[in-house]
Specification:
two-stranded antiparallel sheet; 64% helix
């Protein structure tokens, strides 16, 4: 029997019991979930008594009495519901940051090492701010966040002449696209269980963000989001959260790629350049003094590398490359293939641990957000490794290890945001679904109601 069908004083008695119980729980964020669980427990117990023929009012009183002393039970909840400090993951992050600093000292000059140290300090401040942030805010206004990010990026990328007054050179601003998968995660969460209409709106958000990434000063951010963002959509389809046929859903999800290809070929007329670049990445001898030059030189250096120890540098290899973004090439050259394998193995173990934690999240929004960050990391790592192994098409950064810059700060912020999910996700209550767009009677309705 619903609780509101009983006498008001019994409803007050139930609320007072739950209030007394929650007063013993020091972590305020846990109160909402504990209150919901206790209300459901009292409701179930009272319905069991009603099924035995006991009057509804008496059943609720018995259910409250059976629940036990609220102070004692509250202390038990207090021992269980505490923030899950992510010391293990923080230790992994610290290890990668130390590795990045050490490589800066070994591979770069003092200016490069000092620069890395400064950006690491900024990144730590951003990471801990995100670590204590409330990730559920992302699910409350997902479309507003999405449109805000898109408009801000359009403005930034189209008016890049202002970069001289900022901290980073213009090509660094492509790294802003690293936050796009997390923004898309909020939109996906808001469209769950809405069938094909929800999937279509998610793909529209994907296209908006893809365009914002495409106008960035470098191609890497666009390629990264195209892979990571679509990976997030496909995971959602395969887990059945849209409630659509999986095969048809995946086919629909790949539609933006065909649209983007047609746009580049017939509107931008860059299809031939893109095709040449992809082919050259796998067969650089097609253009040995043009697009294939970097690939050929990297492969020549790697072919002479040792299992351990420093290897010779090919005659035409520009040594300045070893002091830039080719960190893994520099590691193989200076220390050998074994240390390189150790770095990649460590990153793989770290990502696998993140996936295991993400799959255990009770919060649906927490799962989406953590998977978005994991895909952001994973795609960066794969792109970076391929580039450093001579498949020169596009790279962005090696998370937490690459030289300092905007990518390091953003990646550390994403780590902190993901760890905030792991820290509080077990008690977080997912925000209710808010439909900015609704389809009714053949019409699209835009609702601005809070």
């Amino acid at each position: 029997m619903p609780m509101h069908d009983t006498r008001p004083e019994l409803k007050q008695l139930t609320d007072k019991y739950i209030e007394d119980l929650c007063s013993q729980i020091r972590w305020k964020k846990a109160h909402k979930r504990v209150s919901a669980e206790m209300a459901s427990h009292i409701q179930d117990s009272s319905e069991a008594y009603i099924a035995q023929g006991i009057a509804p009012d008496d059943a609720i009183e018995l259910a409250i009495k059976d629940s036990g002393d609220p102070a004692t039970l509250g202390l038990e909840f207090d021992r269980v519901h505490r923030p899950a400090a992510q010391w293990g993951m923080l230790a992994w992050v610290a290890g990668f940051l130390v590795l990045g600093l050490a490589l800066s000292l070994f591979l770069f000059d003092e200016v490069g090492a000092s620069r890395r140290l400064i950006f690491t300090g900024i990144g730590l401040a951003v990471m801990f701010a995100a670590y204590f942030a409330d990730f559920t805010l992302l699910g409350k206004r997902p479309w507003l966040v999405c449109f805000g990010v898109v408009v801000a990026c359009w403005g930034l990328f189209y008016f890049m002449q202002l970069w001289r007054a900022l901290l980073f050179p213009p090509w660094q601003y492509q790294n802003i696209t690293l936050v796009f998968p997390v923004v898309l995660a909020g939109v996906i969460f808001s469209q769950r269980s809405r069938g094909y209409i929800g999937l279509v709106f998610c793909l529209l958000a994907f296209l908006l963000l893809s365009h914002a990434a495409f106008v960035a000063p470098a191609l890497s951010g666009f390629v990264h989001f195209s892979i990571a963002g679509m990976g997030l959509v496909i995971i959602t389809i395969l887990k059945g959260w849209f409630g659509v046929n999986r095969l048809a859903g995946v086919a629909l999800a790949f539609l933006p790629y065909f649209l983007a290809l047609l746009f580049m070929v017939f509107v931008l007329q860059q299809g031939s350049w893109m095709t040449t670049r992809v082919i050259t990445a796998f067969n650089p001898s097609n253009d040995p003094v043009g697009m294939g030059f970097i690939s050929l030189q990297i492969r020549a250096l790697l072919s002479q590398a040792y299992l351990l120890g420093e290897s010779p540098i090919p005659q035409f290899f520009p040594q300045r490359w070893l002091y830039g973004e080719l960190v893994l090439v520099a590691v193989i050259h200076r220390f050998g293939w074994l240390p390189f394998t150790g770095v990649i193995l460590g990153i793989g173990i770290f990502v696998a641990g993140l996936v295991a934690k993400a799959r255990r999240q009770r919060s649906g929004l927490g799962f989406f957000v953590s998977m978005a960050v994991i895909l952001t990391f994973g795609v960066q790592v794969i792109m970076y490794i391929l580039y450093n192994l001579g498949f020169v098409f596009s790279q962005i950064s090696l998370p937490l290890v690459s030289p300092g810059g905007l990518a390091l700060i953003i990646n550390m912020g994403l780590v902190g945001f993901m760890l905030s999910v792991f820290r509080t996700g077990n008690v977080a209550i997912d925000p209710p679904m808010r439909q900015l767009f609704k389809w009714e009677n053949g019409r699209v309705i835009v609702s601005f109601k809070r």
